[in-house]
Amino acid sequence: VTDKELPSGSFWETPIPAEEFARRERESLAALAGPEGDEMRATLEWFARRYPTPLARIAYIRRKTQEARAFQEHAMRHMNGAPTDEPKSP
Amino acid sequence: VSTGEFSDEEFFRTVAASHARALLIGRRALIALGAPVMTADYDLWIHRDDVEALNAAFEAVSHFPSKEPEQARLSGRYVIENGERIDVMVARAASTPSGESLAFEDAWARRSLLEVFRGVFASLPCLDDLIVTKRWGSRPRDLADIEWLSLLKERA
Lengths: 90, 156
What we know:
The structure holds two protein chains of two kinds.
Chain A: H1 10-13, H2 18-31, H3 35-50, H4 54-79
Chain B: H1 8-18, E1 22-25, H2 26-33, E2 42-46, H3 51-59, E3 64-65, H4 69-75, E4 77-81, E5 85-89, E6 93-95, E7 101-103, H5 104-109, E8 112-117, E9 120-124, H6 127-137, H7 140-155
Parallel strand pairs in B: 2-5
Antiparallel strand pairs in B: 1-2, 3-4, 4-5, 6-7, 8-9
């Protein structure tokens, strides 16, 4: 799972005006003809090969989403100066 | 009352057993089809006459609706939850900000069936209709999803 799919800041969640969205959609789809599209195609191939069933794919993403959330929560606690449960350096 | 431990198998088995006309939409649909995107929720779009059937099936596995059926039909959305959160859309049709409309009946007629595991099938909008559902939100993350859906169309 690439950075492109990491969850959810306000940027990702803020609706774009209709005309602007249509323009960006056209640009995004045109970009799929280039290296970005090739990278995404390779990722699709890997994902389908590594997790060949819908259920296996959902289980993998569920695990990765939980890991990402745990990491975000840990990072937020750390930034706020709260004690964390990571091992202390000697 | 159960705390709602809920497997993905149980989710799909419950939807199928409800006999509700239910389309899996949102990012879980993309994942099931093969796109590696992140999400924490299930999203369903159901026929407005099938709210009671879906709720009854989920209540049997200790997941409960946030609204009474009539209220859900009026507002067009509700949530079924306990261990799992399921966002349910009940609208007859929805439109993109640019005015492109998609009716449930049409999406249902064009649906594709995906075997999620042995003998259990999920109904999904066809890829073109899934792309339209992504335009409803018109967020940057929806653009990324449309890219994945377009690539899945290439492979279909």
